[in-house]
C-alpha cells in the first residue's frame, strides 16, 4: 500500500470519529452531542498542559490523547454498559489500531501502535495521566451540558468523578462543579 493510500485510510477513520456523536450524551437526550474527535482533541489540550506541569513527556501525552479513541472508528462509541457485553473488545480494538498502523511508514506505525498499547495498559505516569484526563474532560463536558440545562449529564459527571484516581484531577473536577452553583 502506498503512503497516499495509507493516509486516505487513516483519514477515513478520523472522519468517522469527527462525525460520530458520543453515545452516552445521546442516550441522555443531548441533541447534537460532541463528537468522539472533539473529545479527543480536548483531552489532547489538557494532556499538553498537565504533562508540562508534571514534567512528563508532552508529545507522548498529546499523541496518546489524540489516538486513545481511534478504535472507535471500528467499534463505534461504546458506553460502559455496551462494553460490558463485548467479550472480545480489547482484541477488536487492538486489531483496529494495528490495521491502521501497519499501513503507515516507520517509525510512525510503531509509534501509533505503541502509544495506543501503552494507553490501554495504563502502566506508566503518562498513560495514567491521559486516562485520568479522559475522564476529567468527560466530567467537564457533563458540567457544560448541565449548565445548558441537560440534567441527564449529572450521571456522567458522577461516573467521571468515580473513575478518576488522580487526587489533584478529581479535586479540580469537584471544584469545577462548584463554579456552576
Instruction: Please provide the ordered H/E string of secondary-structure elements.
Output: HHHHHHHHHHH
What is the CATH class name? Answer: Mainly Alpha
Q: What share of residues is helical?
A: over 70%
Query: Can you tell me the overall shape?
Result: globular
User: Are there runs of 5+ residues with pLDDT below 50, and where?
Assistant: none
Count of alpha/pi helices: 11
Largest sheet: none
Strand content: under 5%
- Rg estimate, integer Å: 16 Å
Give the number of DSSP strands.
0
Give the CATH architecture: Orthogonal Bundle
Q: Can you put this structure into words, describing what you see?
A:
- It contains eleven helices and no strands.
- The mean pLDDT is 94.
- It is an all-alpha fold and 181 residues long.
- The relative contact order is 0.13.
- The protein has one domain (3-178): Hypothetical protein af1432, CATH 1.10.3210.
- The N and C termini lie far apart (55 Å).
Core attributes:
181 residues, mainly alpha, Hypothetical protein af1432
